[in-house]
Every structure is written in C-alpha cells, then in structure tokens.
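Dear colleague,

Thank you for sharing your sequence with our group. We've completed the structure prediction you requested, and as agreed, I am returning the results in plain text so they can be pasted directly into your records. Please verify that the sequence below matches your submission; if there's any discrepancy, let me know and we will rerun it promptly.
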Amino acid sequence: MREIAPARIPSQARAMVRHSAMIASLRRASVWVVCCALAACAPRAVPEDAAFDGLSPTDAVSDTVPPPDSARADASVCRATAFESRLDLRYHTVSGVDPNLLSLDLYLPTLAPGCAPPPLVVYVHGGAWVVGDKRNQIDTKVRYFTGEGYAFASVNYRLSPAMAGQPGVRYPVHNQDAARALAWLRSNAGTYGYRAEGITLFGHSAGAGIVTLVGTDPQFLTEQGRSFADLSCVVSLDTEAYDVTTQAMEPGQPGMIYRNAFGSDPMVWSRASPLSNGTLAAGSNIVPFLVVTRGEPARRALSQRLVDALRAAGVRATLHTAERLTHEGVTDAVGLAGDTALMPVFGPFVSACARGQ
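Please find the predicted structure tokens below.
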C-alpha cells in the first residue's frame, strides 16, 4: 500500500508526516505508525441543521456509462433543505473498548410531507486501519447526501495497534464491526425513519477494503443475521486491499501497514483478499460495485483485476479512474459541488442503486 488516508491535520504536522527523514527515524524506532498517529485530530462537529446549495456535477471518464439523468428524477422531488443529527449512537459494546470506536453518527434529511422514507447510505472511513474517525472529512458528505434526500451514516470501528505493544485489533475485527453497524442500522430503521432495505455502502482507503470484504464475503453479514440482500450496492474508493497477500509482502512501511492490520500469517492474508479468498463466484448474490482508482499503473491494474473478477462472477461492476485526484482528494471529492473527477459517476451510480433503478 503506497498511500493511506490520514485524518485532517495541521500543515506543520502534515509536513512532519511527509518528511522522509522523520519517517525513516520512526521506522528505525519500530514505531512507524506514529507518523499515522500524528495525523489524528479532534473530530469536526457538524451543525444540527444546515441549508444546502444545489449540486450539479459535470462530465467524467469511466469505462462504464453511468445511469442517465432520469435516474435522479425521484431524488429531485424529495430533496431536503435541512437535516437532523443523531451522534455517537452505540451499535455494539465491548468491555474495555472506547465506546466511540463502536459508534456511528446518523444524519437524517428533513423531507416534505408525503415523501417516502429516505434510502440509507453508509460510509466507512480510512486511515490504514490505525487512525481515523467517523467525523473526519465528513461535512461535505453530510450536506450532499442529506440534501439529495438520503439518510447518511458514518461508522467507526476498532483500530489496529498504533505501535508494537499497544492494544488494538486485527483482521477480521474491522470487518465484523462494520457488519455489526450495518445490522444495527437495518434493525433501527423504524426508530429513525429511513428505509430499511437497500443500504448503499461505501468506504475510502482502508474503509474501501473493509466495505469490499463485507460486500463480497458473506460471513460478515451472516454472523449478524443479515445478508447481501440488505445492500443495494457497494462503492470502493481507492484502495489496494483487494490483494492483501501482495501488499503484506511489500518491503518497508507499505508492508508494515498491512502486517499491522492483518498479522503475519499468509493464510490469513489470503482469506482477507477478495481476489484470492474464493468468494467471487457465480451465483454469490453480490450487489453492484463501483470501484474507483487512480495513481500509478500497478494500483490501477489491481482495481481492474477486481472488476474483472466481479464481472466474471456475474456482478455488475463499474471501474472509474479519478484522474487528477490525490488519494485523499478522492474522499474529499464525494459530494463536492463542481467536482468533475468523481461525482459525475459516483452520484448517478449511488442514486440508481439506492433508488432501485
């Protein structure tokens, strides 16, 4: 893995993270993840209510033509002008674990009378499985999804050790937590007034790896009494976690990131890899996927391999290359007015899936 998605950080700390001498020093001290930890910052609060500007994304390039504008017709009828926040909802409890790591934030659009319950979109943050929070880089996403008439949830999950000897979890716990959150959201739809069926799931970086596994390996939802039938589609934003084995064997920091999250057992690496764990098979009932990639050719080729494998299994899969965007820029672009690199494909894809079109 050559790029990770840190939380928002001050410019001075960002410079420290990117400074090669600092990274080398941290790695010699076997505390490489401190450079990730420097990226952590206090979550940014989102206002309880907010007005929305109209969003009108323009064209972009994708290997699959996105759904036509008519797919958004229903959304235009029930767009919201405000939203309500339900923060720090605990979906699971584990003794000794920070409750924040097992919580989610839920944002509910204020819709006109007569509108049907809004479809639910769920986001899983990135951060190399080590850092990150459900409120990092979230403001634009909240305003976009609720403004378009979706309920929107941002999910936390337990993180891997920040350095040797510190507490933390490894695979499959991240995925199990995400599946628990989905099951909780499915069960509590009536309480909060969103549609229970057809959840749209997306994630960025490590979060993209998590949602890809939850969306292709049935064990995680099955353990929670749920199934792929609860999902409408999955969007994976810029990750290399489709082949954990290859990434874990990389020298230096890239390999250490994966071994920190997935351990040192090659059999576990294979099980955690959608491209090698045997779950991409015909008749598996996997929902449609949008896979977004960028960066160097090897990174793009890995995403192409996943899309090819999904298509071979009979899954409707779209590959989109977000030209000109950085790794962090991909998640920043979600819901961004005027974006031409991601939203012209992402927006219609999510709309068509979430609204059953």
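Summary note from our side: Strands lie at 83-90, 103-109, 120-124, 151-155, 199-204, 231-237, 289-293, 317-321.

Kind regards,
the structure core
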